[in-house]
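Suppose you are handed only these lines of text.
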Amino acid sequence: MKIRLAVIFMLLGVITPVGGGVVYAALGDLVFEREAGVEGSEAFPPSIFPHWVHRVRYRCYACHPAPFAMEQGANKISMEVIKKGEYCGACHNGRTAFSVEFKNCARCHREPPED
Ligand code: HEC
Ligand code: HEC
Ligand code: HEC
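From them, the structure of the protein bound to heme C can be written out as follows.
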């Protein structure tokens, strides 16, 4: 199973309502395709990776070439491996960055705005 990635090009400053708050969709946000094969999971909003938010905090080599191969869809990411502390879970563990607890689902999973 290959998790492909679509790069969505959005206008800077597009405002998307999320659970009462707002997020600013930025150029270069990456949207993961749902290919983990977990039954029924297609209905759940896709996961969004804001590259820029991370790039201002970390140098490229914090993530490339490991744990993330620098190629769209090259990494088989799922909640299972994240919870084991791999990929996003290396930081999104409640210490380095917000955890994958229920209250935080929508910070990563949200419908991307129309382009
Ligand atoms: C916090 C982690 C992180 C940092 C820091 C980071 N990246 Fe990425 N990058 C990712 C992830 C996650 C993907 C998506 C991988 C996938 O599709 O499986 C990605 C994908 C990419 C891609 C392929 C998709 C695209 O946008 O064309 C390129 C090129 C890339 N990164 C370059 C960079 C460069 C250059 C830097 C430093 C300026 C950087 N990255 C910093 C995590 C990071
Ligand atoms: C740090 C970001 C992040 C958080 C927080 C997060 N997820 Fe995910 N999730 C991902 C990524 C990345 C994937 C793999 C790509 C995809 O399928 O969207 C994923 C995949 C999934 C999938 C697809 C099937 C699977 O198991 O991989 C479901 C369903 C899911 N997440 C539900 C949730 C729920 C429910 C929560 C809150 C309890 C949550 N996620 C929190 C990033 C996150
Ligand atoms: C090298 C550490 C690191 C990795 C790996 C990483 N993140 Fe993050 N991420 C951070 C930090 C630090 C923040 C900002 C602090 C916070 O909000 O807790 C952040 C913030 C975010 C945000 C919130 C952006 C905003 O606008 O507030 C999202 C969404 C996110 N990450 C998703 C992901 C996903 C999805 C992955 C895996 C594909 C991932 N991150 C991998 C460190 C990381």
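What can we learn from it? The two ends are 28 Å apart (CA to CA). The pocket of heme C (ligand 1) is lined by residues 5, 7, 30, 49, 51, 54-55, 58, 60, 62-64, 68, 70-75 (CB under 6 Å).
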